[in-house]
Design goal:
Elements: E1 3-10, H1 14-32, E2 36-40, H2 45-51, H3 57-64, E3 68-73, H4 88-98, E4 103-109, H5 122-125, E5 129-135, E6 147-150, E7 156-159, H6 166-181, E8 186-191, H7 197-209, E9 217-222, H8 223-232, E10 239-242, H9 244-257, E11 265-269, E12 275-279, H10 296-308, H11 313-328, E13 331-332, E14 342-343, H12 346-357
Helix pairs in contact: 1-10, 1-11, 1-12, 6-7, 8-9, 10-11, 11-12
The protein binds nicotinamide-adenine-dinucleotide.
Length: about 350
C-alpha cells in the first residue's frame, strides 16, 4: 500500500524548498521502505493564476484523501493588491479551517552549531528547545462580527471579535499537556486575562484540565510578559500554549532566537493526527528564484510529517540527524552563514542532507 502525500509548493521560494524536501523524502523512502507517493497541487498565488481561486475544491479533496500535506509558502507582491477574499493567504486559512487543523506545533530548537546566528547571547540560547502550541482555527483571526463600518458621525471604525468556546480551548490545551508529557513536563499558558474576558475563560479551562495531568506543571503568563521573557530568559520555557494571534507573534519571536526563520518547521494537526506541514517562514519574494533560500525548515517539516502523521519516527530521527551533520560540516545558506563557514545554494544544502543520510 502506498502512502499518499500531497505537495503544495505555493509561491516565491516555495517550489525551490519543496524540491529539496522531496529529494530528502525520496532518500528516506528508499532507505526505510516507506512507500511514499507524491501528488503535487497548486495553492496561493499559483492557484489564483491557474484557477482564479487560492485553493481549488479539487485540491482540498485530494488533501483530505492523503495521509499528510507538505506545503511551501504562499503570497507575494503580484497578488497583494487583489481583493482580500481571494488573496493567496485565504487559501492557507481555508485549508487549515476545512481540514480542522486546530493545533499548530512550532518547535524552536537552536542547533548548537548556530548559536552565534542568534540575536541573543550564546549562553541565553545554547541548548534552547521550546515548543509553541498555537491554536489555529479560532480566536480573533476567525471571530465574527468583523469588518470596517461607518459610524453615525461619519468616521470609519475597524472591528474584530476575539472569541473562544470552551471546547476549542480544551482540545488545544490537551494537545499541549500531551506534548509536555513527552518533553520536560511544563506548560505555560499565555493569555491576557487581566484585560480580555475571552482569555479569562481560556485560563479557567486550562486550570480545569491540569488535574488530569498531575505530572505536568502548569503556569500562566500574560502575553506582554511572555514576549519579554522569551528574549530575557527563553530557556525557562518547555511548552507554551496560546491562542491564534498571540501564538502568531510569539512564535516569530522564538524563531529569531534560533538564528533564522529559515530553520523552523511547523505542523498543523487535526484531532485524528492528520497534518499539514510547512516551514514557519513565508514565500520570501525578495530572494525567490535566486537559489539562496534555506531549505532546512522545510526539510525539518518533512521530518515532523514522518513523525506525527506517518508514525515513522526512525526516518524522522535520521533526517534531523542528517541536518545536524550538514551543519557540523560547516555548510550554510546565506541566512545562517557566519565567518569560517561555506556559503552554499539551496540545492547544495539539500544535496548535502541527502548525502548525510546515505
Ligand atoms: P517571509 O518569511 O517570507 O520573509 C521574511 C524575511 O525572511 C525575508 O527577508 C526573507 O528573505 C527571509 N526568509 C524567509 N524564509 C527564508 C528562507 N527559507 N531562507 C532564507 N531567508 C528566508 O515574510 P514576509 O516577507 O513578511 O512575507 C512574504 C510573503 O509571504 C507575504 O506575501 C506573506 O503574506 C507571505 N507569508 C506566507 C506564510 C505562509 O505561507 N505560511 C507565512 C508568512 C508570510
Amino acid at each position: 500500500m502506498t502512502r499518499k502525500i500531497v505537495l503544495l509548493p505555493g509561491d516565491g521560494i516555495g517550489p525551490e524548498i519543496i524540491a529539496e524536501a522531496v529529494k530528502v523524502l525520496e532518500c528516506v523512502d528508499k532507505k526505510f521502505g516507506l512507500k511514499l507517493k507524491f501528488e503535487e497541487e497548486l495553492i496561493g498565488g499559483a492557484a489564483i493564476d491557474e484557477h482564479g481561486l487560492p485553493l481549488a475544491n479539487s485540491t482540498l479533496e485530494k488533501c483530505r484523501a492523503a495521509e499528510a500535506v507538505l506545503m511551501g509558502s504562499v503570497g507575494g507582491p503580484k497578488w497583494d493588491t487583489m481583493d482580500a477574499s481571494i488573496r493567496p493567504e485565504k487559501g492557507l486559512l481555508k485549508i487549515r479551517y476545512e481540514l480542522g487543523l486546530f493545533a499548530n506545533l512550532r518547535p524552536a530548537i537552536l542547533y548548537p552549531q548556530l548559536a552565534d546566528a542568534s540575536s541573543l547571547k550564546r549562553e541565553l540560547v545554547a541548548g534552547l528547545d521550546i515548543l509553541i502550541v498555537r491554536e489555529l482555527t479560532g480566536g480573533i483571526y476567525f471571530g465574527e462580527p468583523r469588518g470596517i463600518r461607518r459610524l453615525d458621525n461619519g468616521e470609519r471604525q475597524g472591528y474584530n471579535t476575539y472569541v473562544y468556546a470552551e471546547h476549542e480551548v480544551e482540545r488545544i490545551g490537551r494537545n499541549a499537556f500531551e506534548m509536555a508529557m513527552k518533553r520536560n513536563k511544563k506548560v505555560c499558558s499565555v493569555d491576557k486575562a487581566n484585560v480580555l474576558e475571552a482569555t479569562v475563560l481560556w485560563r479557567e479551562v486550562m486550570q480545569g484540565l491540569a488535574p488530569e495531568y498531575p505530572e505536568v506543571e502548569l503556569s500562566h503568563m500574560y502575553v506582554d510578559n511572555a514576549a519579554m521573557q522569551l528574549v530575557r530568559e527563553p530557556k525557562q520555557f518547555d511548552v507554551i500554549v496560546t491562542g491564534n494571534m498571540f501564538g502568531d507573534i510569539l512564535s516569530d519571536t522564538a524563531a529569531m532566537l534560533t538564528g533564522s526563520i529559515g530553520m523552523l518547521p511547523s505542523a498543523s494537526l487535526n484531532s485524528d493526527g492528520f497534518g499539514l506541514y510547512e516551514p514557519v517562514h513565508g514565500s520570501a519574494p525578495d530572494i525567490a528564484g535566486q537559489g539562496i533560500a534555506n531549505p532546512l525548515a522545510t526539510i525539518l517539516s518533512a521530518a515532523m510529517m514522518l513523525r506525527y502523521s506517518l508514525a515513522e519516527a526512525e526516518a524522522a530521527d535520521a533526517i534531523e540527524a542528517a541536518v545536524g551533520k550538514v551543519l557540523d560540516q560547516g555548510l550554510r545558506s546565506a541566512d545562517i552563514w557566519s565567518e569560517g563557514c561555506d556559503k552554499v545554494s539551496t540545492q547544495a544544502l539539500g544535496d548535502a542532507v541527502v548525502a548525510a543520510l546515505l
